[in-house]
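Q: Is it fine to ask for two folds in a single conversation?
A: Yes, each is treated on its own. Send the first.
Q: Here.
A: Result:
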Amino acid sequence: MTKLTEVARVIRSKNAGPYELTLDILLKDAAVYETFRSRGIISRASVAALYGVSANEVMSVIYFDPAHAIKVTMKRRIPSGAPGDTDVYGAQQHMPLVDFEFELGDVPAERG
């Protein structure tokens, strides 16, 4: 098994408005990114399982080729700044991704 922290340059979270949260994953190289994209390693289902929510609460998973990045948008459990919110900026919500493990398998060598 491979941890996401082994193949990502950046793993972060932030608010996407008061009711939504964005998770950003920037992968280290094109070959790993292509493996993630072609296998759908980060998907609505995998994020939902990781965060303990329904797949309906994961609004989108976007693979952005030029940056070798994956952007996930999901509903916040508690709106930003509402009573009970412990992370107004959404900056600590990426932590479940830090422990995310997956089967990477063979990754093709980078071209170029």
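Q: Second one now.
A: Result:
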Amino acid sequence: MEMAMRLFSVLLTGAALVSCTAIPPPPTRTAQAQQRYDMLLAGKIAQAPVSCLPSYSANDMIRIDDDTIAFRDGSRRVYVNHMHGPCSGLSNDSNALVTVEHTPPGPCSGDIARVVDTMNHMTVGSCAWGDFVPYAVPGTRA
């Protein structure tokens, strides 16, 4: 009986440790979204992440999927942001991303964004910005 209790205790402890250290699965993308992502980053290399987008224009935003947004900075640099928590519905073309709070000049990590259905003006999701990872053509100045 005592041996069974010890075994049960060890198994329970092991299960608890595994559940705490489990890594969430990477975001799944449609083939079309993955192709768009690959094309944006083609020929570019990752640089050190920044917490705020240095310049911001909504016209330069590209929705990749519910977890990933990119901003074009000319033809030589792209900033990629993996949102904290999926922005449900972001990849739907009839929805828009609205930043609730942001520090000028653009959004910063931790700022809240809402996904709004543009047809009925209802919020359908929300999330927070993560760090912005610049990908640049080698030799591009900061």
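Q: Anything structural to flag on that second result?
A: Two points. Confidence is low (pLDDT under 50) at residues 16-24. The CA atoms of residues 29 and 35 lie 9 Å apart.
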